[in-house]
């Protein structure tokens, strides 16, 4: 059974087998969590992302999918990159956000990762409402069969921490 834990803090400072990056489809860095992971992890992450773009993801990583690279200088073995959906009320598709969590856990299992640190995917610049994102994240992680022993939700501020704490109980 997977243990769910909450941490208020900076995901780039987590010691885990894998850290999840809320990436953009280019895989080449960006703002928020994506930019922070690329900055702290160093050039090795970007180098592997460029190789992925050149070989398998020429048009970018599709929303809801996940792929792994080295973690570079981070205190993890891998970074699992996933592209969350952009929230627009008329077209918001919660199944795509749910898919991010399932895909990351599948990649973690393929890697042999036992601890995975997740941010609140799609809640920053992509605008997904925090309460709904927390509900989807916790529900999907609990429903997914995985060998991952600990899923750690690393939440940047008190509002995110509270939203996830209410879902975990």
TrEMBL record:
<feature type="domain" description="Macro">
    <location>
        <begin position="1"/>
        <end position="169"/>
    </location>
</feature>
<dbReference type="InterPro" id="IPR002589">
    <property type="entry name" value="Macro_dom"/>
</dbReference>
<protein>
    <submittedName>
        <fullName>O-acetyl-ADP-ribose deacetylase</fullName>
    </submittedName>
</protein>
<dbReference type="Pfam" id="PF01661">
    <property type="entry name" value="Macro"/>
</dbReference>
<dbReference type="InterPro" id="IPR043472">
    <property type="entry name" value="Macro_dom-like"/>
</dbReference>
């Amino acid at each position: 059974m997977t243990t769910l834990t909450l941490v208020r803090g900076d995901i780039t400072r987590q010691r885990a087998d894998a850290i999840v990056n809320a990436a953009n489809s280019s895989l080449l860095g960006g703002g928020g969590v994506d930019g922070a992971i690329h900055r702290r992890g160093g050039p090795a992450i970007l180098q592997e992302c460029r190789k992925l773009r050149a070989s398998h993801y020429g048009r970018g990583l599709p929303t809801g999918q996940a792929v792994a690279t080295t973690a570079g200088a981070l205190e993890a073995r891998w970074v699992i990159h996933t592209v969350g959906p952009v929230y627009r009320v008329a077209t918001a598709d919660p199944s795509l956000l749910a898919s991010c969590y399932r895909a990351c856990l599948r990649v973690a299992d393929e890697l042999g990762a036992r601890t995975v640190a997740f941010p609140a995917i799609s809640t920053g610049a992509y605008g997904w409402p925090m309460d709904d994102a927390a509900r989807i994240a916790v529900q999907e992680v609990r429903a997914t069969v995985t060998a991952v022993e600990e899923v750690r939700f690393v939440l940047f501020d008190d509002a995110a921490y509270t939203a996830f704490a209410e879902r975990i109980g």
